[in-house]
Fold:
Amino acid sequence: MKSITRFVLSLASLPVALVMSSCETSTSTGYNPLDDFEQLSPATIFASPEPLPSASYSPEQLTRGRYMVGLLGCGSCHTDGALVGDPNPSRLLAGSGTGIAYSSPFVDANPGIVYPANLTPDMETGLGGWTMERLVTMIRIGTTEHSTSSLPVMPWPAYSSITYDDALSIAAYLKSLPPVVHRVPSNVRRGERANAPFVHFGVYQSR
Ligand code: HEC
Structure:
Protein backbone atom coordinates (compact mmCIF):
# COMPACT_ATOMS: atom_id res chain seq x y z
CA MET A 1 0.00 0.00 0.00
CA LYS A 2 1.28 3.42 -0.90
CA SER A 3 1.96 5.61 2.06
CA ILE A 4 0.83 9.18 1.69
CA THR A 5 1.76 12.21 3.71
CA ARG A 6 -0.58 15.10 3.41
CA PHE A 7 0.15 18.66 4.47
CA VAL A 8 -2.79 20.90 4.95
CA LEU A 9 -1.80 24.50 5.38
CA SER A 10 -4.10 26.50 7.50
CA LEU A 11 -4.66 29.79 5.76
CA ALA A 12 -6.32 31.19 8.83
CA SER A 13 -3.27 30.83 11.03
CA LEU A 14 -0.59 33.06 9.68
CA PRO A 15 2.31 33.07 8.93
CA VAL A 16 1.56 30.86 5.98
CA ALA A 17 4.00 31.74 3.20
CA LEU A 18 5.67 28.45 2.47
CA VAL A 19 6.75 27.86 -1.04
CA MET A 20 8.32 30.58 -3.09
CA SER A 21 8.36 30.66 -6.82
CA SER A 22 8.96 33.31 -9.44
CA CYS A 23 7.67 33.96 -12.90
CA GLU A 24 10.83 32.46 -14.46
CA THR A 25 9.98 29.04 -13.06
CA SER A 26 6.56 29.04 -14.65
CA THR A 27 6.23 27.33 -18.00
CA SER A 28 3.10 26.82 -19.98
CA THR A 29 3.38 23.01 -20.10
CA GLY A 30 4.17 20.47 -17.44
CA TYR A 31 4.27 23.07 -14.73
CA ASN A 32 4.71 21.64 -11.26
CA PRO A 33 4.62 24.15 -8.40
CA LEU A 34 6.77 21.84 -6.30
CA ASP A 35 9.61 21.54 -8.84
CA ASP A 36 11.48 24.57 -7.67
CA PHE A 37 10.94 25.92 -4.20
CA GLU A 38 12.69 27.16 -1.13
CA GLN A 39 11.50 27.29 2.43
CA LEU A 40 10.66 30.76 3.64
CA SER A 41 11.04 32.16 7.10
CA PRO A 42 7.75 33.13 8.77
CA ALA A 43 6.20 36.45 7.75
CA THR A 44 7.41 39.30 9.88
CA ILE A 45 4.99 40.68 12.43
CA PHE A 46 4.61 44.45 12.37
CA ALA A 47 2.38 47.05 13.95
CA SER A 48 -0.68 48.25 12.05
CA PRO A 49 -0.29 51.88 10.98
CA GLU A 50 -1.82 54.76 12.94
CA PRO A 51 -5.13 55.99 11.41
CA LEU A 52 -5.65 59.68 10.63
CA PRO A 53 -8.07 61.54 12.95
CA SER A 54 -11.56 61.14 11.51
CA ALA A 55 -14.78 63.14 11.59
CA SER A 56 -16.78 60.16 10.28
CA TYR A 57 -15.77 57.42 12.71
CA SER A 58 -15.42 57.34 16.48
CA PRO A 59 -11.99 56.91 18.13
CA GLU A 60 -13.33 53.67 19.70
CA GLN A 61 -14.24 52.30 16.28
CA LEU A 62 -10.79 53.14 14.88
CA THR A 63 -9.01 51.61 17.88
CA ARG A 64 -11.12 48.46 17.53
CA GLY A 65 -10.51 48.29 13.76
CA ARG A 66 -6.76 48.68 14.18
CA TYR A 67 -6.76 45.97 16.82
CA MET A 68 -8.77 43.60 14.60
CA VAL A 69 -6.54 44.20 11.57
CA GLY A 70 -3.45 43.38 13.65
CA LEU A 71 -5.11 40.34 15.21
CA LEU A 72 -6.31 38.92 11.89
CA GLY A 73 -2.99 39.52 10.17
CA CYS A 74 -4.34 41.43 7.17
CA GLY A 75 -0.94 43.09 6.72
CA SER A 76 0.86 39.74 6.46
CA CYS A 77 -0.52 39.49 2.93
CA HIS A 78 -1.51 43.05 2.08
CA THR A 79 1.97 44.61 2.54
CA ASP A 80 4.92 44.66 0.15
CA GLY A 81 7.71 42.48 1.48
CA ALA A 82 5.61 40.76 4.15
CA LEU A 83 5.19 37.49 2.24
CA VAL A 84 8.86 37.39 1.22
CA GLY A 85 11.67 39.54 2.58
CA ASP A 86 11.04 42.47 4.89
CA PRO A 87 7.83 44.51 5.09
CA ASN A 88 8.21 47.91 3.44
CA PRO A 89 7.39 50.45 6.20
CA SER A 90 6.16 53.03 3.68
CA ARG A 91 3.72 50.52 2.17
CA LEU A 92 2.03 49.06 5.26
CA LEU A 93 -1.37 47.63 4.18
CA ALA A 94 -0.84 49.20 0.73
CA GLY A 95 -0.89 45.94 -1.22
CA SER A 96 1.67 43.37 -2.25
CA GLY A 97 3.73 43.13 -5.44
CA THR A 98 4.16 39.44 -4.57
CA GLY A 99 1.11 37.40 -5.47
CA ILE A 100 -0.29 34.16 -4.10
CA ALA A 101 -1.09 31.11 -6.21
CA TYR A 102 -3.65 28.95 -4.55
CA SER A 103 -3.21 25.45 -5.82
CA SER A 104 -3.86 21.85 -5.32
CA PRO A 105 -1.53 20.04 -7.75
CA PHE A 106 -4.06 17.19 -7.98
CA VAL A 107 -6.52 19.37 -9.79
CA ASP A 108 -4.76 22.58 -10.83
CA ALA A 109 -1.62 22.14 -12.91
CA ASN A 110 -1.44 25.88 -13.43
CA PRO A 111 -3.34 27.82 -10.78
CA GLY A 112 -4.49 31.41 -10.88
CA ILE A 113 -2.51 34.01 -8.98
CA VAL A 114 -4.00 36.81 -6.91
CA TYR A 115 -2.19 39.92 -5.67
CA PRO A 116 -3.26 41.21 -2.22
CA ALA A 117 -4.89 44.59 -2.83
CA ASN A 118 -3.93 48.05 -1.61
CA LEU A 119 -6.18 48.48 1.45
CA THR A 120 -5.43 52.19 1.98
CA PRO A 121 -8.03 54.69 0.76
CA ASP A 122 -6.16 55.96 -2.30
CA MET A 123 -8.82 56.68 -4.94
CA GLU A 124 -6.93 55.25 -7.92
CA THR A 125 -4.97 52.31 -6.54
CA GLY A 126 -6.67 51.55 -3.21
CA LEU A 127 -10.08 51.35 -1.56
CA GLY A 128 -10.91 55.09 -1.77
CA GLY A 129 -13.96 54.46 -3.93
CA TRP A 130 -15.36 51.57 -1.88
CA THR A 131 -18.45 52.04 0.27
CA MET A 132 -18.41 50.76 3.84
CA GLU A 133 -20.99 48.11 2.92
CA ARG A 134 -18.85 46.84 0.06
CA LEU A 135 -15.87 46.55 2.41
CA VAL A 136 -17.86 44.74 5.09
CA THR A 137 -19.17 42.30 2.47
CA MET A 138 -15.66 41.61 1.15
CA ILE A 139 -14.34 40.90 4.63
CA ARG A 140 -17.21 38.65 5.70
CA ILE A 141 -18.32 36.97 2.45
CA GLY A 142 -15.29 37.31 0.17
CA THR A 143 -17.16 39.00 -2.65
CA THR A 144 -14.92 41.17 -4.81
CA GLU A 145 -15.66 44.55 -6.32
CA HIS A 146 -16.96 42.75 -9.38
CA SER A 147 -19.35 40.69 -7.25
CA THR A 148 -17.46 37.51 -7.92
CA SER A 149 -16.27 35.28 -5.15
CA SER A 150 -12.61 35.75 -4.28
CA LEU A 151 -10.24 32.77 -4.23
CA PRO A 152 -10.09 31.42 -0.66
CA VAL A 153 -6.49 32.67 -0.54
CA MET A 154 -7.85 35.65 1.31
CA PRO A 155 -9.13 33.80 4.38
CA TRP A 156 -12.68 35.18 4.29
CA PRO A 157 -14.17 31.79 5.21
CA ALA A 158 -12.31 32.18 8.51
CA TYR A 159 -13.58 35.74 8.91
CA SER A 160 -17.22 34.94 8.21
CA SER A 161 -18.08 34.79 11.91
CA ILE A 162 -16.82 38.33 12.55
CA THR A 163 -19.67 40.43 13.92
CA TYR A 164 -21.08 43.15 11.70
CA ASP A 165 -19.79 45.83 14.11
CA ASP A 166 -16.27 44.43 14.10
CA ALA A 167 -16.25 44.27 10.29
CA LEU A 168 -17.52 47.86 10.26
CA SER A 169 -14.67 48.89 12.59
CA ILE A 170 -12.15 47.27 10.24
CA ALA A 171 -13.70 49.14 7.30
CA ALA A 172 -13.64 52.44 9.26
CA TYR A 173 -9.99 51.92 10.19
CA LEU A 174 -8.98 51.11 6.59
CA LYS A 175 -10.88 54.17 5.32
CA SER A 176 -8.98 56.33 7.85
CA LEU A 177 -5.47 55.22 6.90
CA PRO A 178 -3.17 57.68 5.18
CA PRO A 179 -3.71 56.91 1.46
CA VAL A 180 -0.71 55.29 -0.22
CA VAL A 181 -0.40 55.29 -4.01
CA HIS A 182 0.60 51.77 -4.96
CA ARG A 183 -0.83 49.76 -7.82
CA VAL A 184 -0.45 46.01 -7.34
CA PRO A 185 -0.01 43.72 -10.37
CA SER A 186 -3.18 42.43 -12.02
CA ASN A 187 -4.40 38.99 -11.06
CA VAL A 188 -3.24 36.21 -13.37
CA ARG A 189 -5.89 33.88 -14.66
CA ARG A 190 -5.51 30.14 -14.60
CA GLY A 191 -3.17 28.98 -17.37
CA GLU A 192 -1.62 32.42 -18.00
CA ARG A 193 1.93 33.43 -17.14
CA ALA A 194 2.75 35.77 -14.30
CA ASN A 195 4.98 38.79 -14.87
CA ALA A 196 5.43 39.45 -11.16
CA PRO A 197 6.64 37.07 -8.42
CA PHE A 198 4.29 34.92 -6.39
CA VAL A 199 4.25 32.37 -3.59
CA HIS A 200 2.13 29.25 -3.30
CA PHE A 201 -0.47 28.47 -0.69
CA GLY A 202 -2.29 25.22 -0.92
CA VAL A 203 -2.75 21.61 -0.08
CA TYR A 204 0.21 19.41 -0.99
CA GLN A 205 0.78 15.70 -0.96
CA SER A 206 4.17 13.98 -1.04
CA ARG A 207 4.47 10.44 -2.33
C1 HEC B 1 -3.64 35.10 3.36
C2 HEC B 1 -3.53 36.40 2.71
C3 HEC B 1 -4.56 37.45 3.03
C4 HEC B 1 -4.98 37.89 4.26
C5 HEC B 1 -4.50 37.41 5.63
C6 HEC B 1 -5.95 38.91 4.02
N1 HEC B 1 -6.13 39.09 2.68
FE1 HEC B 1 -7.38 40.42 1.81
N2 HEC B 1 -6.89 39.71 -0.01
C7 HEC B 1 -5.91 38.77 -0.25
C8 HEC B 1 -5.82 38.54 -1.68
C9 HEC B 1 -4.88 37.58 -2.37
C10 HEC B 1 -6.78 39.39 -2.28
C11 HEC B 1 -7.13 39.50 -3.75
C12 HEC B 1 -8.23 38.49 -3.99
C13 HEC B 1 -8.75 38.45 -5.40
O1 HEC B 1 -8.40 39.33 -6.19
O2 HEC B 1 -9.53 37.51 -5.70
C14 HEC B 1 -7.43 40.10 -1.20
C15 HEC B 1 -8.45 41.03 -1.38
C16 HEC B 1 -8.95 41.84 -0.40
C17 HEC B 1 -9.92 42.90 -0.59
C18 HEC B 1 -10.54 43.28 -1.93
C19 HEC B 1 -9.76 44.39 -2.55
C20 HEC B 1 -10.02 44.54 -4.03
O3 HEC B 1 -9.54 45.56 -4.59
O4 HEC B 1 -10.67 43.68 -4.64
C21 HEC B 1 -10.15 43.47 0.62
C22 HEC B 1 -11.08 44.63 0.92
C23 HEC B 1 -9.34 42.77 1.58
N3 HEC B 1 -8.62 41.78 0.93
C24 HEC B 1 -9.29 43.06 2.92
C25 HEC B 1 -8.63 42.27 3.86
C26 HEC B 1 -8.73 42.49 5.29
C27 HEC B 1 -9.49 43.61 5.95
C28 HEC B 1 -8.00 41.50 5.89
C29 HEC B 1 -7.85 41.22 7.36
C30 HEC B 1 -9.09 41.14 8.11
C31 HEC B 1 -7.43 40.68 4.82
N4 HEC B 1 -7.84 41.19 3.62
C32 HEC B 1 -6.61 39.60 5.02
C33 HEC B 1 -5.14 38.13 0.68
C34 HEC B 1 -5.28 38.23 2.04
User: Anything to note?
Assistant: The beta strands are 5-8, 19-21, 99-103, 113-114, 198-206. The CA atoms of residues 129 and 189 lie 25 Å apart. The two ends are 12 Å apart (CA to CA). The chain has five helices and five strands.
